[in-house]
Amino acid sequence: MNQSSGLSTLKIVAIVAVIVLIVVAFGSILTYNSIVSKEQDVKKSWGNIEAAYQMRVDKIPAVLSAVNATMTFERSLLENITNLRTQWLNEVGKDVAANVNTTEQLDSKINALLLAINENYPDLKSVQVVDEFIAIVDETENVILAQRVFYNDAVASYNSAVKGFPGNIFADMFDFEEAPYYERGQ
């Protein structure tokens, strides 16, 4: 009878050992998967930062081109009118034929300006376009800032998992390295 009680104790110890091994195995799997998941969150967050920068790289030159085109149009138009006005002022009282010619050119440019303004440019657009450009740059910078915050949150979560116990054991075993934070100036 003593032997059967020993077998029962041995069976109980074996069952407890198997249960402990199963718990340790599941805990290890969960810890490893958690670290992998957090590492993927860091990579995804970094990808979002890259996408936000790409958006800025794509948007800004196009908007800047529109700003430059608008400003060039306005500058050219106003310079032509200013030059004709100066020419007309310099010719007043000197040569009637030259005055008539300059006056006709000035009238033509002013009429073209008024027509262009009324049809295509209800008001000169450069100030509005520059304001829109600034708004787009600000919006893009805000998106980038938000993505940096999300990235740093993901890095904090991942680094805590890699440095804490038992994650640090898996970090050493599977080469999980701390991720760098996105700091100002990067």
Strand content: under 5%
Number of DSSP strand runs? 0
Question: Percent of residues in helical segments?
Answer: over 70%
Residue windows where pLDDT falls under 50 for at least 5 positions = none
Radius of gyration: 37 Å
Distance between the termini: 76 Å
> Main beta sheet, described?
none
Overall number of domains: 1
Average pLDDT reading? 81
Shape: rod-shaped
What structural class results from the helix and strand content? mainly alpha
Q: H/E order of the elements?
A: HHHH
Number of contiguous helices: 4
Give a brief description:
By secondary structure, this protein is mostly helical. The chain contains 4 helices and no strands. It has one domain.
Structural features, described:
- The protein is mostly helical and 186 residues long.
- It has one domain.
- It has helices at 2-91, 96-119, 126-163, 167-174.
- Helix 1 (2-91) packs antiparallel against helix 2, helix 1 (2-91) packs antiparallel against helix 3 and helix 3 (126-163) crosses helix 4.
